[in-house]
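Quick sanity check, MFS transporter:
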Amino acid sequence: MAQQQAVDAVQGGPPPAEENPRRVRLVFLGVMLGMFLAALDQTIVSTALPTIVGDLGGANHLSWVVTAYMLAATATTPLWGKLGDLFGRKGVFLVCIVIFLVGSALCGQARNMTELIAFRAVQGLGGGGLMVLAMAVIADVVPPRERGRYQGVIGAVFGVSSVVGPLLGGFLVDNLNWRWVFYVNLPVGVVALFVIATALHAKKPEGRPSIDYVGTVLLAAASTCLVLITSLGGQTWAWNSVEVWGCGIGAVVLIGAFIWVEQRVKEPVLPLRLFKNRIFTVCSAMGFIIGLCMFGALSYIPLYMQVVNGNSPTQSGLRLLPMMAGVLITSIGTGQLISRTGRYKIYPILGTALTCVALVLLAQVDEKTSATVMGVYMLILGLGLGLVMQVLIIAVQNSTDFADLGTATSGVTYFRSIGGSFGASIFGTVLNNQLNSKITHALADGTLSPHFPVKEVLADPTLVAKAPPALKPIVEPFLHLFAISLQTVYLVAAGIAVIAFVLSLFLREVPLRTATRTSGQGEAAGPPTFRSSAEEIEGMITRLSSRENIWERYGRAIDKAGVDISVPQAYGLFRLHHAGPITEDEICARLKITPDEIRPKLDAMVASGRVQRDQNGVLTLTASGQDVIDKLCTARVAQLSKKLEGYSPDQHAELVSMLRVLADDSLDAPGRMLTD
């Protein structure tokens, strides 16, 4: 039944011709440049923050330089995805580049911390679109069989940007100034804008998706209220102040309104039924905590290095490499192990345990701790975080029905990203509250000299690193106070990580479906996603197909279809099916071979009655040839359907049609097989 529906779905003719390879490469370059910049700006400011505070002041609001960008980028993720479907991805992607560049230029011109935070939010609006639309734009120009590979590259670029960001930020601050952390986006972004505008052909949108504008706004507003409380409570606002109570009540009202709206809209941004799935709920909570720990650490470890150790921004960026290397090593390695063994529960248990240990170790760090010891602690933290990140996507996709696959995947990456926003703000609040309290006590008991410039140093903690040697006796007590204040930050983080460890014990391990063995590979530390369920399935299938030997793939399809044909001839039929009427000379030009190499194979295909050659030498498929194509595709659909056990492909018309397209595409892999 499913196979017959599949055949019927495409018998209207051969698929459209593939895009020009040179143009595909240009589009990919433009998309990667845009997404790289957007991902880079999540971490590039971490090593520049102390210098920014020294220039603009506002140390109490330092965390918002990170939080504003991540909150704006994360909250608008579902909106940009839907707008791309509605108005066409080329136009929306270009708009995102422009918004990002305008935000970058304004950040570079900021005159105070308030302006910088506001402009970072503008930058985040564009950055969120660049990250979430990257794969969608690629899918417009790349055939399905290639998309899995491109998806992996996108995830790798995102991961590399996390490593390069702090290092590049430190280099720019040391050799130019902190404003170039934002100005560097402009020339690269303009290149991306030009490439996409000229190389990417606009495609007419298919259908008119329903957009949950109200739900998106309510979710963003509620998140903002909560972040305001965690970042300003106890500092700018007293905990019992009208502002804190107002934000708290506002958050409750907004969350209530969000729940009410999500129960009534056609396509909710976050379907509440997902939370009935215990695996989704556990993974979302763990993702939130992992994001919180990772971006909180990225924001404040460089501050420790520059204030307490006196490192330059570039040095602090280099010293972050062990942590980021650990994340990449274990996230990639875990994905490979899960794919081979089908087991995944042990990794988040080990990962959260390692994360707890690392944070407790970081809570012992003081002004006397060596760079080597600090590097080991950060490596342990990175290894722990990476062990957890890969599993979240796999576990959720493995436990979700097809109808909810896309939104569940988007949901778990959303919680990880929003956790990063909270991490920077919570870490900042704890640090500032602890530091202010300890300075007050130190001044009272004489530990800190009454001549110490408290107001100036709190506005710019890096001043202590610039103090002349004669002032060392006055400065050293402050370095100790700063270090032990950060110890409290990591103890609080360790307590939060313990919650993730407990949650990991309740993560139910479900036997791994064949399709989900490649889920999330390259995306563990990747951007927030917004893909439909069909797009998620397509990614799984193409990644699985990429691991197959092409000869074996054809051989299995031929055996299942029960047709008498060799692998090279079957391949030749599919090439003719896609190319349409074509001459022998045109085939030779495309395959870069001589007529003597191809003619015997073509003569055999004509003799079989599956291909006909007219008096002008034009080759076309006969009815018999088309029948072989249909039988092989039907056999291939059956093979692909087996890979989707658990998703009930025969019960979803959308999946049936997609499988026929993927079957046809996977049997048309490029190469010289016809002459082998």
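Posting the structure with no commentary besides this: The chain has three domains: 2-211+267-439+485-542, 212-266, 549-675.
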